[in-house]
Amino acid sequence: MTAGSDPVFSSKSRAEFGASPPPRDHRRLEWDEALERVVAGLVPTWLGEDLGYECDWTSISLVAAEARAELDVVARAGGVVAGLAAAGIVAAGVDPRLEWSRAAKDGDVVSRGAIVARLAGPTRSILTAERTVLNVLGRMSGVATATRRLVDAVAGTHCRIYDTRKTVPGWRLLDKYAARAGGGWTHRIGLYDAILIKDNHLAAMAAAGSDPAAAVRRARDFVARTFPAERAAATVVEIELDSLDQLPAVLEAGPDIVLLDNMPAERLAAGIAIRNRLRPEVILEASGGVSPDTVGAIAATGIDRVSSGWPTHASPWLDVALDWGTATRSA
Description:
With 331 residues, the chain is of the alpha/beta class. Helices cover 42% and strands 18% of the residues.
């Protein structure tokens, strides 16, 4: 990529990124009525940051109440757009008279200068909604764009990119939806929808005299005894390991997924060989130190999946603007 040029992204749609997940995997997050309700519940808080308990005094003081306008939402950089439906809910929350029309769909690759949506209606209301609409689009499109960079970097392998719980508080579902729009896969939503035995769980177990394999067996038994049969059958049991010495015994305990944390490529390859020999049905996941520069080498080991918090905690926003220059307006 030359200086000042847009990055080049795969133009594949979300549906083309991999086949269906295995029978016991995390639920894939898609835009639906439940997510719409989540966004509608967040909008008053978002708008309250701008309006307090008052209003947009600048627009009221300068713009006639009867003025109307139609403005374009324009991408100022190339990337993957996400959050268009969420931004429309924001606009409606400001003023139900505002008309939000999408010129793209979530997951689309857009170039610099592309119009992704239009906002029409009372000018005062457009100006009031502007920053919150752009914040939602910029944040979600930034996450989607970063995720697509990882997805494109593992193209040609069977490796999938998964999100993590490293999300903005209050934005968990939106961050994870944006990662899906970028071609990623959904890891567990929270602590309630899967078993993931991490290092501090293992430390607590070790203090009580139990090893990682015992932790897997205990979790499996708990799920079987506690949950209804249908939920138990769908509940993922995953364990994080930082040493391959633990892997053979853990595999024999029967987890669905083993996460190999912060291991170099040669250790990952060794872990895959152990898995293939002992329990080839167990999924292996890699995490730690994942970036667009490193993920290709990680995927080349033959690992099944990579989880990364980089798109949701470190990626830049996509620059989007509400462009008055191409708008129509009337009094």
